Amino acid sequence: MQKEKPYKILKPPKGLERYILMHADKGYLITDNKTRIGTCSCCGRPQKIYGLKHNDTACCAHCNRTVIVKESRYGRKKLEERGRILYLKKYSATTYAELLHYTIDYTTTIPTVLYAESDVYKLNKEVQERYEYVRLYVNGTWQWCWEKARTVKITDVFRGFGWKGHYIKTIFYNPSISETGTDLRYADFSICMDELGQYPPDYVIGYINNFLKYPSIEILQKSGFLHIVKQKSFYNVGSRAINWRGRNLKKILKLDAGELTEFRKINMGEIYTLEEYKKIKKIFLMLSFKYIHLFRWDSINKNQIEEIIKYMTIETLYKYVCKNKIPITDYQDYFSDLQKLQLNLANRRILRPKDFVKAHAERAKQVVALQNEITLKKFLENDIAAGLEYNDNKYLIRPAASPEELQKEGDVLGHCVGTYINKMADKRCAILFVRLSAEPNNPLYTIELSPDYKIKQFRGRYNSTPPEDAKKFVSDWTEWLAKTKRIKKGA
C-alpha cells in the first residue's frame, strides 16, 4: 500500500482526449444560431449549419459521425458520458499500462475530458504486476491509496442496480499498441483485434501477461494454434493437457509429430479437444484426431467397454466403429440391446454387422417388443384390483383389463392415465373405470387406487371433478369394500 503513484512515467498521451471524444457513444453538434456555426464534439471542427433545430439528428461534414444537434442557448449540465480507457507506454524492455476513468463534460462548446486514476500495470519477463487505486480504512480514516492487486487483468466495474445497472464501457487507445517494450518485440497483437478493428482492453492485457509469463504462447501463435492462445490469454482457460512452460511444440502439447499434424488440421485445435483426446486415449491407445468426433469422453461407459472387450479386442472395436463411422455411444446402445435379447455375442456377424444402421434399428425394435411383452405380463399380474368389481342401477366399477384399454381411457378423457402402464406393471397402483351400466365400454370417470386400497385420484374428462351422484356411488363402493375388510372405512 502506498499513497504515491507507482509508475510516474505514466501520463495521458496528447491524443488521448480526442480519441475518447471520437469513440464516445454519442456525438453532438453544439450550434450557435447567431453565427450559424456548429462544432462537432467528436472531431472538434466547426461547420456551417442550415435549418437544424435543437435535438435534430445530423451528420458531421468532417468526421461523418451521426450527431445530435444541441443549441448553445440551452443548458447541458446533465449531458456527460463516463467510461474507462487503457493505454500503453514503453520504457526499455518494460511495457507500462494505465487504466483511467474518464468523464466527458459537454457543458462547454468544445467538450472537455476529466480523468480519474484506476489501475496501473508493469509488464516484462521478470515482473507482471498491477496496482489499483482503492479507498482503504487506514489509521482511523478513509484514504485513497495504491494497493498491489492479486491478479493482472482488467476488472469489470458495474454501476447501478438490477436491470437498470450496466458495466462501464472500457476502450483501448489504439495508437499506443506500438508502445511496447523490447520484451514484446516478437508479440503479434493482431490476434487481439476484433471484427471492428478495435483492441478490447482485457484481450490486450491478457495477451501481454501470458506472452511474457509463458514462452509457449509465442510458439503456439507462430505455429498456428490461435484458438489455444485466445482461450488462455482472453478467457484464462488453463489445462493440464498443456505444458505452458514448454520450449518446443511437442513438449508444450505433449504430442508426437504425427499427432501434431492431425491436431492442427481440426480447426487449428482447441484446448477442450486436446483434453478429450488425452482422456480417451487412455482407453483407445490407437486413437487418431481424425476420428475423435466418434468418441466423446462423457458418453463412454467404461463398464460397458469392459464387457465389449470380452468378445473382441479394443483394437477391433476401434477399427470397426471408425471404418463404419459409428459414434461409440451408438455402438454401446447396440451392444446393450444384444445383451437384453440374450443373443450369442460370440457370433461375429451379430457383434459386428456389415450394415450397422439396419442391424441397430432391428435390434432396437426387438427390444421394444420384448419390453412390451414383459410389461404386458406384469400388467396382467397386477392383482390389486382383483375382485373389486361393483355396480348399481346407474354406474359400474371395474379394473382396467389391458394397456390398450388404459391408453384409450387417457385419450378419450384427455388426462394422463395412459402413461400409468409401467406404474401398474410395477404394482405401484391399480386403475379402475367408473362407467354407466348402460354404456360399459364408453370411458367416463377414472380411479387411481394405491396398493393399500386408498383412492389417490378420482377424475373425469380433462381432470374435472365428477358429479355428486358419481361421488356417492364411489362412496358406497368404499363402504362395501370396508364391509368386505378389503380396506379400512373412510380410506
Shape: extended
Number of strands: 18
Q: Beta-strand level of the residues, as a percent range?
A: 15-25%
Q: Numbering strands along the chain, what is their spatial order in the largest sheet?
A: 10-9-8-7-6-13
Q: How large is the radius of gyration?
A: 38 Å
Largest sheet: 6 strands, mixed
Provide the structure class.
Answer: alpha+beta
The number of helical elements comes to 15
Oligomer: single chain
Mean of all residue-level pLDDT scores = 91
Describe, in plain words, how this protein is organized in 3D.
It is a single chain. This protein is an alpha+beta fold and 491 residues long. The chain has four domains: 16-172, no CATH class; 177-271, no CATH class; 298-377, no CATH class; 390-483, no CATH class. Helix content is 31%, strand content 22%. It is built from 15 helices and 18 strands. The strands form four sheets. It has a six-stranded mixed sheet. A five-stranded mixed sheet has the order 3-2-1-5-4, with no helix packed on it. A five-stranded antiparallel sheet has the order 14-15-16-17-18, with helices on both faces. Helix 2 packs across helix 4 (226-235) and helix 10 (328-340) crosses helix 12. The longest helix has 25 residues, at 356-380. The chain starts with 15 loop residues before the first helix and ends in an 8-residue tail after the last helix. The mean pLDDT is 91.
